[in-house]
């Protein structure tokens, strides 16, 4: 074969290879090399790591704040159990056994801070909404479970174990 014929055949083969590559892979400007995707892959890994660390950090902070809230509630419960300032007044007599004020006219025991009528055996009173209130702590009491609930924060505590009870 002559040189011009060989050149023509090689030129035709090259054109066919280019057309096949364009058909399979798209035009030359749309093709990318594998090495150009490496920065995108690394960037994706970095973004995923940052987002993962952010979620872990947020979970840690939320858990820590909830733990502090629960510890404050338990501390407040213990403090309210230990402090009970009662003073007689307005013709009411202080009962030495219970520390409550006794009204001889109505034959009722009263909590001097709230004015609620108190059962001297259980030291529980009913507030205007009908909830049982422990007069020593001013916390709501649930007789079914024996748990106390802080009226300010809504945290429920088991008084036997002094742990926070998650509401169901």
Shape: rod-shaped
Helix coverage percent: 40-55%
The strands making up the biggest β-sheet line up spatially as 1-2-3-4-5-6-7-8-9-10
Assembly status: single chain
Number of strands: 10
Q: Roughly what is the average pLDDT, rounded to an integer?
A: 79
The number of helical runs is: 2
Span between termini: 91 Å
Describe the largest sheet: 10 strands, antiparallel
Question: Rg to the nearest angstrom?
Answer: 39 Å
Strand content: 15-25%
Structural class: alpha+beta
Order of helices and strands: HHEEEEEEEEEE
Question: What low-confidence regions span 5 or more consecutive residues with pLDDT below 50?
Answer: none
Can you put this structure into words, describing what you see?
- By secondary structure, this protein is of the alpha+beta class.
- Helices cover 40% and strands 18% of the residues.
- It is built from 2 helices and 10 strands, in the order H-H-E-E-E-E-E-E-E-E-E-E.
- The chain has a 10-stranded antiparallel sheet, covered by helices on one side.
- The longest helix has 45 residues, at 38-82.
- The protein is rod-shaped, with a radius of gyration of 39 Å.
- The model has no long low-confidence stretch (mean pLDDT 79).
Layout of SSEs?
Blueprint: H1 3-25, H2 38-82, E1 93-94, E2 101-103, E3 108-110, E4 117-119, E5 124-126, E6 132-134, E7 139-142, E8 147-149, E9 156-158, E10 163-165
């Amino acid at each position: 074969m002559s040189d011009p014929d060989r050149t023509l055949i090689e030129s035709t083969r090259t054109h066919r290879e280019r057309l096949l590559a364009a058909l399979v892979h798209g035009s030359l400007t749309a093709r990318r090399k594998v090495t150009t995707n490496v920065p995108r892959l690394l960037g994706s890994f970095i973004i995923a790591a940052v987002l993962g660390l952010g979620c872990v950090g947020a979970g840690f902070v939320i858990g820590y704040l909830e733990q502090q809230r629960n510890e404050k509630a338990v501390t407040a419960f213990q403090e309210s159990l230990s402090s009970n300032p009662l003073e007689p007044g307005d013709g009411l007599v202080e009962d030495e056994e219970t520390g409550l004020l006794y009204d001889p006219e109505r034959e009722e025991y009263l909590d001097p801070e709230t004015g609620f009528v108190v059962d001297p055996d259980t030291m529980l009173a009913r507030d205007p909404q009908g909830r049982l209130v422990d007069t020593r702590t001013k916390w709501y009491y649930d007789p079914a479970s024996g748990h106390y609930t802080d009226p300010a924060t809504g945290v429920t505590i088991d008084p036997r174990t002094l742990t926070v009870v998650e509401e169901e």
